[in-house]
Amino acid sequence: MTHTRILVTGGAGFIGSHYVRTLLGPSGPPDVSVTVLDKMTYAASSSSLDPVRGSDRFALAIADICDPVETGRLVAEHDQVVHFAAESHVDRSISDSAEFVRTNVLGTHVLVDAAHRHGIETFVHVSTDEVYGSISTGSTAETTPLSPNSPYAASKAASDLIALSYHRTHGTDVRVTRCSNNYGHHQFPEKLIPLFVTNLLDGKNVPLYGDGLNIRDWLHIDDHVRGIELVRTGGRPGEVYNIGGGTELTNRELTHLLLEACGASHDRIEYVTDRKGHDLRYSVDWSKSHAELGYTPRKNFVEGLAETVAWYRDNRDWWESLRERAALPAEENVVGAPAC
Ligand code: NAD
Ligand code: DAU
């Protein structure tokens, strides 16, 4: 049996760690080993990798994808790359975008260039629906022109184009995935769902931006990870694959579901100043992933949300210390109220 050595960048973050736990878990392929390359920024969680730490098919390399020497050395020792590492939080890119350009654009360049030079078999670049920009109706296909708005989205769009340019120019087997908003356990408590749930569990209010009518499509982390594996194992070089969740909700609708799940009342919602340049709606058409790879989101949203809320309720140890790290809008976002 051929053994595949996979370098997973950003594997200590929310989606990357889930991917690694799945690959090395009981239902993962037996013929792969994984090295996580992660800088361990504020968004990383070392304990998210605890379940795989004892595996002889797992290794952790603490490094920066912008470092060409260390990144080149690690890439050279692997057959494939699955690239999650990024600055991922839109609000932070509005406050200060320098690190977004450095990691997302320059870091991706360092990585894909090393992949080309060392003859990597397959390079999966994990991207986002935000690169298509905001749409009020319909859904964006892989052929829709890119129209990113936030500095985060622009840095991701740039990284997609750099990665794809290596396929067109050098023939590197680059595959790009673009997914919608992920949710599930082990998500850093700065994104809407974990921020609101942990606020409610701590007796605080929840800060809803603007009128709360912006729409996101929610994708369970298990579905996303399955979609990425389908692309890694069955996708075509140079192709882009959208991965959607199939549950579109306004932020207000989602917040009401979260309040219900936490047994909290509606007066816990605090309408706050809108995000600058706040995109109204994203929606990806994932019919290509379905037709070519058999991808379909399977997780029922109500069930997935209830499991997620229960996980945060039962795993305070995991998120309490991380919340302290989430320095950005802590003061503005946090307002007192009775516990739920
Ligand atoms: P995350 O913020 O939870 O994790 C990012 C990880 O990357 C962290 O472990 C961090 O330490 C690491 N990292 C950051 N800079 C690095 C660098 N210079 N070198 C090495 N490692 C570095 O992010 P996430 O939510 O897990 O997102 C993973 C990927 O998926 C990102 O590329 C993001 O753009 C994309 N994405 C996320 C979502 C979502 O809903 N979370 C949706 C669409 C796409
Ligand atoms: O669409 C995919 C993207 O989803 C990913 O590429 C990003 O990495 C990921 O962070 C996420 O971006 P969003 O900006 O959509 O996610 P966030 O959880 O920050 O916000 C979701 C919605 O909720 C958005 O409309 C803004 C709103 N919001 C967010 C926060 C943090 C609030 O109303 N209040 C908040 O406190």
Automatic annotation (TrEMBL):
Top-level EC class as recorded in UniProt: lyase
Family according to the record: Belongs to the NAD(P)-dependent epimerase/dehydratase family. dTDP-glucose dehydratase subfamily.
Catalytic activity entry: dTDP-alpha-D-glucose = dTDP-4-dehydro-6-deoxy-alpha-D-glucose + H2O
Coiled coil: none
Source organism, top-level taxon: Bacteria
Keywords assigned: Lyase, NAD
Domain NAD(P)-binding: 7-308
Gene transcribed to yield this protein: rfbB
The protein's Enzyme Commission number: 4.2.1.46
GO biological process: nucleotide-sugar metabolic process
Source species: Streptantibioticus silvisoli
Descriptive protein name: dTDP-glucose 4,6-dehydratase
